[in-house]
Structure formats: C-alpha cells, structure tokens
Amino acid sequence: MNLHALRLFHVIASCGSVTRASELLNISQPAITAQIKKFEKELLLSLLKPQGRGIALTDAGEEIAQLAKRLFAVEQQIEQFAQHYREGTNGSVRLAATYLPAHFLIPTWIAKFKQQFEQVEMIITTTNSNDALQQLLNVDVDIAIYGGIPEEYPDTIQTEELFQDELWFVVAPNHRYANQQVSLARMMKEPFVMREEGSSTRERLLSLCRTYNSSTPTISLQFNGLHEAITAVIAGYGANFVSSLVVREYVERGELCRVYVEGIHLKNTIAICTRKNEPLSASSLNFIQMIRQNPFRK
Fold first, then answer.
1. Considering 94, 160, 209, 256, which has the largest number of Cβ atoms within 10 A of its Cβ?
2. Where is the HTH lysR-type domain positioned along the sequence (predicted)?
3. Whole-angstrom Cα distance, residue 232 to residue 221?
C-alpha cells in the first residue's frame, strides 16, 4: 500500500476539500488528484465522488478514512513517544543497589526523580555487592548503586564516587567496650553480627584483619539484611562493623555506642557503577544527573 497516497487521502478526508489539502500540503491539485486516482486503482476501490462543485467520500472512502485516522494517530503517538524517550521523560531505569544505598539513599532519590519524570518506570533490585555488580555485567540492570567499592572490580565497569562516610564498630550501650578505645586484636575476639557472604562491609572487615595480620572474628549471627543485624546488636548481642550512615541516628539516640579501635579509620564509598563504553538511555542519564545534584551526605 502506498502510505504517501493514503496520507494525502487522509488530509483530503479531514478537511473535505482537494483545494484545501493542496494548500495545507503545498502540493498542486493535479498532483494530488493523480496520486489519489493511482491509489484507487491500487485498492480497486473508489474513494471519492463528485458532489456539486466539490467532492465527497464514498462508503468505502468513509471506512478507509476512519482507519487512516487511527493509523496516523498511532504514528503521532510513536513520534511523541520517541521524542519523550530521547528526552528521558519516558522509558525505564533498571537499578541494582546494595543494602546501604537501597535503604538510606535511593528512596529519597527516587522521590525527587519521580516528581520531575513521573512516567519513567523504576525497576529496583536490592542485593549484596557481588550480585549487584554481576547483574550489571549481565546487562540485567542499567545502573548499580554501590556502597563500599571493592578493592578490585572488572575493567568493563566504570565507577563514579558520590561521597564517603565512615565505617564504625558498634555495640549495645551496656557492652564493656561501649565508647571505649580498644585494640583491633581485642575487638576481633568479640562475636560479630554481620550480613551474609557477599556483603562489601563484611569483606572489608575480613580484609582489615588480613591487612593488620589479626585473627578474623567469629560471626556468630548472620542475616540477609542490615536492619536485622543492627536490631540484634541493639538487643545486646555481639558487635557490628557498619557504615555510619546506617547507625548514626541509633548512636545519637543512645541505642548503640561506638567502639574506637586503635589506628583504624576506614571510609565507605558510595558510588554509581555503569558499563564502560556503553551509552545509557536518556532516562538513566537523567536519574544519574539528579543523584549528582542531590547526593545526600549525612
């Protein structure tokens, strides 16, 4: 089917006049008439009929005019969608995040983002550090928000640091080391409540022990979430090694206390991870730009 001819017919049917269609399209009347006659031969249907000094639609022309109206309305929708997608006002953002940013940063970021880009779909997976990077490598997500950049990561991953916060040792207020300064060796003799294997903070703790040639702690309780681990420590069991972003308010309220380990001052990096040399969608770029403007430092 000649879609150009169908478009000419659609304009004629919409304005009710070949003369008016000629003016709107800036095409001569004879050229339009020739195209319509050729189109009628292609369809083996008569679409227009004389009516006084003008023309009218045949019954077949009425039906095709309605179908053409729907077709070109969809075309307009496609053009609008493409424009919105290019601008990032439509589309989706697939995001994997480690527990720290997922619980303490991303809800605020998404709320700000959706106020401006309401039609963009946000698909968020909360997982541990290893899995977040693996999902990014597997192209299951567009962006990974990472709390605690690993010592080594694939060359195909690009990272952008947002900010850093401190890593703290914390215990319950009635613990003998609460608000005390102790050696790393003594601290490692305490039972620890930690996240599951694959957690970046857990790996940082074990790496710390290797660096200082200290014995590794006994992880007596293990949870698949930050909240559960912190709650267990607040209840009075063991110690935790965790981002200050997570526990600062608990410490300020007196529900947890810091332990100051001699010579240990570690930072935790919050970063955006993407795949190198791979263009992001406009919606993903808009989300990253919003994060840069609102990184939220505690």
1. 256
2. 1-58
3. 9
Could you read off the pLDDT of 245-293 as tens digits, one per residue? 889 999 999 999 999 999 999 888 899 999 998 888 999 999 999 999 8
DSSP letter at 52 equals: T
How far apart are alpha carbons 164 and 162 in whole angstroms? Answer: 7
pTM, full prediction: 0.64
Spell out the alpha helix ranges (H) of 26-179. Answer: 29-43, 59-87, 99-104, 106-116, 129-137
Which residue is it, tokens 């914390």? 170
Angle at 121 between CA 118 and CA 122, to 5 degrees: 105
Query: Torsions phi, psi of 174, nearest 5?
Result: -90, 5
Question: Is residue 134 a contact partner of residue 235, using CB atoms and an 8 Å limit?
Answer: no
Q: Is 94 helix (H, G, I), strand (E, B) or coil?
A: strand
Cβ-contact 268, 199 below 8 angstroms? no
Beta pairing, strands 92-98 & 219-223: unpaired
DSSP one-letter code for 17: -
